[in-house]
Amino acid sequence: MDLPKLAIAALGGTVSMKARHISEGVIPMVNGEALLASVPELKTLARVNVETLGMLPSASVDFEFLLSVLSWASFQIKQGAAGVVITQGTDALEEVATFFDHLWHHDQPLVLTGAMRSAAQAGADGPANLLDACRVALAASSRQRGVQVVIHGQIHQASAVRKTDSLALQAFSSPNVGPAGLLVEDSVCYLRPPSPRKVLPLPHQTGHRIALLEASLSADTRILENISGLGYAGLVIAGFGAGHVSESWARTIEFIAQHIPVIVATRTGSGSTARATYGFDGSEIDLVRKGALMAGFVCPRKTRILLWLLVGCERQDELADFLKQD
């Protein structure tokens, strides 16, 4: 039987980490070929092309690098790959998945995975996660689902997945909606059908910056007041509760919103911003009146990525439509 083609890119992260010496912390050292060797069963599932595109902790990944990885992944699909798998660090996994999902226009799946235990630890979870991710990437039922995160036997939509624990093995979940599917006895089992997606073109400008600030108790406005003067092209606020800020922040946001897009999300980690419940100064009704947009269910970090991409495409006027879609 002719096996399907599968492409794997290694970017670094905990899944690739070992310590040079016992007394030292782990660093990226394990390349894509070594990761592939840890899951020999893959040879029975697909003809695999693996490349090491980076050896970075995910906190050091930037948008320019991700665009180059996306170009590589698209080329693999054009060369006949049934799907693409990317291994990387878990710290920024939800953000990278969201970035790719807004730009991935292929029917074939793009699947991200990583590990919570380094390659040298007892019970390292990287090989099992990689094998599961490859099974998902090869499954016919994974088509037209965009970008997904596969980790610890669960399949998560890029738009929903969050890292909700710093060190635990079960560090990922999808608040509000739950996982999109599961790996059951090595089979890919989806719990719901694919949902409609609105994909953006590649940004033609990448030098702009989007600020992200979190509202907190008794916070002053000094940084907020200087956002426009610092040259930012947009601002995301991680607001209290259902999308609220203090009275002083609300007054400053009104001025900023006259010059750049301002979006208010919730910092809580789950749930949506409100739209028409609270009416005090700094509430969602007040902020919308002052020119801000509410992010709905989109978390602050993913909102920042969306705004960066829209500004890069000069389509920031569509922002409300994208937030409504989510």
UniProtKB/TrEMBL annotation:
PROSITE patterns: ASN_GLN_ASE_3. The gene is ansB_2. It comes from Pseudomonas fluorescens. The keyword Hydrolase applies. Pfam families: Asparaginase, Asparaginase_C. Its EC number is 3.5.1.1. This is Putative L-asparaginase periplasmic. Belongs to the asparaginase 1 family. Substrate binds at S58, T90, D91. Residues 5-193 form the L-asparaginase N-terminal domain. InterPro entries: AsnASE_II, Asp/glu_Ase-like_sf, Asparaginase/glutaminase-like, Asparaginase_C, L-asparaginase_C, L-asparaginase_N, L-asparaginase_N_sf. Residues 209-315 form the Asparaginase/glutaminase C-terminal domain. The lineage of its organism: Bacteria, Pseudomonadati, Pseudomonadota, Gammaproteobacteria, Pseudomonadales. It is an enzyme of class 3 (hydrolase). Gene3D superfamilies: 3.40.50.40, L-asparaginase, N-terminal domain. GO terms for molecular function: asparaginase activity. SUPFAM superfamilies: Glutaminase/Asparaginase. GO terms for biological process: asparagine metabolic process. Keywords: Hydrolase. The active site is at T14.
